[in-house]
Amino acid sequence: MIGPELRPLALVTGASRGIGAAVARALAPGHDVLLGGRDSAALHALAVELPGSRPWPVDLTDGRALAEAAGGIERLDVLVHSAGVGLLGTVAETPASTWRRQFEINVVAVAELTRLLLPALRAAGGRVVLLNSGAGLSARAGWASYAASKFALRAFADALRAEEAGNGVRVTSVHPGRVDTQMQREVVAQEGGDYRPESYLRPESVAGAVLLAVTAPDDAALTELVLRPAGP
Ligand code: NAP
């Protein structure tokens, strides 16, 4: 007798809220989903909502914990990097500690988790999707360290795509404009403006773009997806 088909496995970082949680919800109907983040209560609540998913609680900046958590994954169909921080400030007011924190989470943790999971991704002919930003395409005043981290993330994605094409691993950078999430609330608070969610993208819309990248047929590599709020 042939046993039941195993569902594809996805790991989504930053799944405790915002875009990552929306991506987990979008993937859950067709995937078993590992829910990454540090907020265990939020991850458990989402796991209850999404059958086939389970919390994957780890601080991405803790190299030892990350290696341990990734160690048990032998085959991975989808890796979505949504965890990130958005620390604003002009060059004049941004100390080295902010640059380091921003790069540690937005770039170094992404590179390290990808490296640890490459054998599992190769085994599955997997998809890697990176939540980049409009700031990864052009930099504005006051956004130097965030934009630089997202430019670096784009370069990482481009190199990974070139290196892994022969191994069947596909890589997509998704570049949304402003999205209605906690990060955007913090960004607007740093900028000192009004929070206008009706003018921003919904996390579900960004998750739709991620799903598009994940479900693209094997002959089509969706390399970059750019989403802007549609309103004026
Ligand atoms: P968010 O609501 O602030 O969520 C950030 C996520 O990252 C949380 O789930 C958080 O989980 C996780 N995270 C942060 N530091 C972590 C760490 N050290 N270890 C593990 N997880 C960590 O942000 P978002 O708006 O959903 O943004 C998601 C991604 O989209 C980011 O890469 C961001 O740069 C990008 N993006 C956002 C916007 C926007 O307007 N919101 C626009 C363009 C691009 P825990 O707190 O549970 O650890």
Automatic annotation (TrEMBL):
Gene3D superfamilies: NAD(P)-binding Rossmann-like Domain
One Pfam family recorded for the sequence: adh_short
Entry's Gene Ontology cellular component terms: membrane
Keyword terms: Oxidoreductase
Domain Ketoreductase stretches: 8-182
SMART domains named in the record: PKS_KR (SM00822)
Molecular function in Gene Ontology: oxidoreductase activity
Keyword Oxidoreductase included in the entry's annotation: yes
Entry's family note: Belongs to the short-chain dehydrogenases/reductases (SDR) family.
Name used for this protein in its record: NADP-dependent 3-hydroxy acid dehydrogenase YdfG
Taxon lineage: Bacteria, Bacillati, Actinomycetota, Actinomycetes, Pseudonocardiales
